[in-house]
Amino acid sequence: MLFLPSQNIEFAIMKNKLVYLIGIIAAAGLSRLLPHPWNFSPLVGITLMGGALISNRKLSFLLPLAIWLFTDLLVNAFIYAKPLTDLSYFITSDALGVYLSMLMIWGIGLLMSKRLRFSTILAGTIASSLLFYIVTNTAVFLGSPYYEPSLAGWLQCMYMGIPFYQSPYGTLFGSFFFNGIMGDLFYSGMLFGSWYYINRRAFVPAIA
Fold it and tell me: Which of 16, 29, 52, 72 is deepest in the core (most CB within 10 A)?
């Protein structure tokens, strides 16, 4: 295809924006290796950003998925001192819940792309936080012998996940559950905010 000068400029801008998206998503994902509160994670933010702002659907899914997989391996190796070749985590019910929730969160990102503004980003982030919590705790419930296989057992598992890894101050605000929501809001705000800034007050998807 022959590009006119104006088309060349537009194509170069969109290409640069895509490179920026890939770079910031990768950098946010690697921040998992930095010291952080339990469950204060970039994973929801990068998945929403991929689904909402990368117009190539295959890339918008595979990029966050690759970051999830790669950083899970690095976390296992450098934080939990497991060999890089130890893939046992990926065949557990916990991992199934995590990656199933990733697929659903990506779908929320796709929905956000149709009407991308502050309200939809906020609603999509909170919905993703709750979805991740419910799906991953359900996976724990299904794979755990400690809960009665009933609605009451499932509800108990949901409840037990709220104060899990509670802060030393003993407050619900510092819990595993609320750390997750705060992390999702922080990273979504940072990622989408930076994109909003470089696009000069407009959320414009990048073409791949």
Answer: 52
